[in-house]
């Protein structure tokens, strides 16, 4: 299956925007991704092996967190996973500050 890699993580995939990884479930596919690209593991998974809370994964167009089987959802070679890291923070600019 194709996995779309976000820009901040492409340095760990040799600059690849998309990689091909096999797996029968979302979890197995992500684990294989971390096996194929070991430097990604710490960015995707906690020390306990759980997907980090700030990493959003979409199976095709569906947020995996809201699927009935979540990361145990079965996948096929035609599916696509998209990894989207959460982005937080920002800064105030002159009079257009929105954080006060």
Key features?
Ubiquitin-like (UB roll); 15% helix
Going by CATH, what is the homologous superfamily? Beta-grasp domain
Number of domains: 1
Q: What helical percentage do the residues reach? A: 10-25%
Largest sheet, strands/sense/barrel = 5 strands, mixed
Name the shape in a single word: globular
Structural class per helix/strand content?
A: alpha+beta
Q: Identify the CATH class.
A: Alpha Beta
Radius of gyration: 15 Å
Q: What is the N-to-C succession of helices and strands? A: EEHHEEE
CATH topology: Ubiquitin-like (UB roll)
What amount of the residues lies in strands?
15-25%
Low-confidence regions: 94-100
Mean pLDDT: 87
Name the quaternary structure: single chain
Structure description:
The chain is α+β, with helices and mostly antiparallel strands and 100 residues long. The chain has a single domain (2-88), classed as Beta-grasp domain (Ubiquitin-like (UB roll), Roll), CATH 3.10.20.30. 15% of the residues lie in helices and 19% in strands. The chain contains two helices and five strands. It has helices at 26-36, 41-44; strands at 2-4, 18-20, 55-59, 62-63, 80-85. The protein has a five-stranded mixed beta sheet with strand order 2-1-5-3-4, with no helix packed on it. A hairpin with a 2-residue loop joins strand 3 (55-59) and strand 4. Mean pLDDT is 87; it is low at 94-100.
